[in-house]
Amino acid sequence: MKALFLDGIGKLSVQDVARPVPKADEVLVRVEACGICGTDRHLFLGEFPSFPPVTLGHEFSGIIEAVGQDVTDMQVGMRVTSDPNIACGVCEACQAGRVNLCHNLQAIGIHRNGGFAEFVVMPRKQAFALPLSLDPLHGAFCEPLACCLHAVDLAGLKAGASVTVIGGGVIGLLTVQLARLAGATRVVLVTRNRAKRDLAARLGATACLDPAEVDEYLRQHGGADVVFECAGLAATVAGAPRLARRGGMVVILGVLPAGQMVEIEPFDLLFREVSLITSFLNPFTHARAADLIAAGAVQIAPLISRTLTLDQAATVIASPAPDGEIRALAVPAMTNRA
Ligand code: NAP
Fold first, then answer.
1. What is the CATH classification number for the domain harbouring 97?
2. How far does the centroid of ligand 1 lie from the alpha carbon of residue 233, in Å?
3. Which atom of ligand 1 is nearest to the CA of 281?
4. Please, which pLDDT band fits residue 4 given cuts at 50, 70 and 90?
C-alpha cells in the first residue's frame, strides 16, 4: 500500500509499504479521506514534537477491512471515524477523567502511523461508527468538530447567548455552527478573508467582520458573552478579552508556538471579571461529533476546498495554506488512479 511518511523535519516521502495487520484489539481501516491540518505543517517544519519515521494524518475516516480477534462489536464493511488521541487510562489525569491531559497521550498520525495512507490500524476503542450513507469525505471532519465541541461545552453556552469567533478556518467555521446549535442568537465571526466571511454568513453567523471593523461594531453592539479564539496568533489572543462583555469569557483554542508570550492586562480582566480559559483536544466528545455529522446537523461540504492524492498532499503539507483555503483532504484511493 502507499503511505505518506514524515522521514524527518522537512522531509516527506510517499512509499510502498506492507499493509498493516491489526492486533487483537485493533481494526484495519481503508482510509477514505484524511484532512491536512495546521499541525501536519508544524510537524513537517519541526515546530511540534515529531517521531519520524511516521505516517502523518490524524483527521480521517474510512471503511473497516479487517478486525483483530478480540473485536466483536465492529464488523468488516462498517464506516468509522478515528479519535486519534489515545489516553493511557491509568495516569493521574486519566483517573481524574481528564483524558485530554493524559501524561502518556499517544496520537494516531503523530506518535504512530496515521491516515495519509491507503490503510491504517487503530485500537477499536478509538473507532466510532458512521453511516454508510454519509458522504465519504465528511467523516474526516469529526476530529476537528470534536475539539470545537469541547470548547463549546467548556463555555457552557446558554440559549440566547452572544458569541464572537475569531478566525474563519475550519475550527472557527465549525464553532460558528456549534454556537448556533447551542442556542446562541448573536454569532459574530471575525476573519480577514472576504470569501470566508461570506461562507460564515451562509453557515449561520449573524455578522461577519474584517478585524478593522471590530472597534466600530463594539461601539454599536458591545462585547459578547463568549469569545472563541480560533486564529492562533499572538495578536488575536491578546485582543480577544476586549471582545468580551463584562462578566464574559474567552476560550482559547488557537495554538501558538511553545515559548511565545502574549501581553494580557490583568486589571481589565479583573475589573470586568472576564475569564480566560483554554480548550485542548476532544475529551469524550468524538462520539457526539460523529453523531452531529451523521445527522447532517453541521454543514461540511462547503469546508472542503479540494481533494488530493498522497503525492499532492506531501506538496501541500510542505507549503503554507493558500489564501482562502479552508480544508484540503487527501483521498488515498486517488493516488493509484493519478
Ligand atoms: P486555520 O485554517 O489557519 O484558521 C485560522 C484562521 O484565522 C485563518 O483562516 C485566518 O483566516 C484567520 N486569521 C488570521 N489572522 C487573523 C486575524 N488577525 N483576525 C482574525 N482572523 C485571522 O486553522 P484551523 O485549522 O481553523 O485552526 C485554528 C487554530 O486552532 C489553530 O491554531 C490550530 O492549531 C488550533 N487548533 C486547536 C485545537 C484545540 O484542541 N485547541 C484543535 C484543532 C486546531 P483569514 O485569512 O480570513 O484571516
1. 3.90.180.10
2. 8
3. 40
4. very high
Burial class (CB in 10 A: 0-12, 13-18, 19+), 143: buried
- Identify whether 319 is part of a domain: yes
Distance 275 CA to ligand 1 centre (A): 21
Assess whether 13 and 71 both reside in one domain: yes
Amino acid at 328: A
Identify which of 40, 149, 171 to mutate to test ligand 1's pocket (most ligand atoms within 8 A of the CB): 171
In the chain, % of residues over pLDDT 70: 99
- Decide: 101 and 42 in contact? Cβ < 8 Å: no
Same-domain pairing of 10 and 125? yes
Q: Which ligand 1 atom sits nearest the alpha carbon of residue 196?
A: 47
Contact 299, 173 (CB under 8 A): no
Residues 112 and 229 in one domain: no
Please choose, from the candidates 138, 143, 150, 144, the residue with its C-alpha nearest in 3D space to the C-alpha of residue 173: 144
The pLDDT assigned to 262 comes to 97
Whether 211 is in the pocket of ligand 1, judged by its Cβ within 6 Å, is yes
Whether residue 142 is contained in a domain is answered as no
DSSP 108: B
Domain count for the chain, please give it: 2
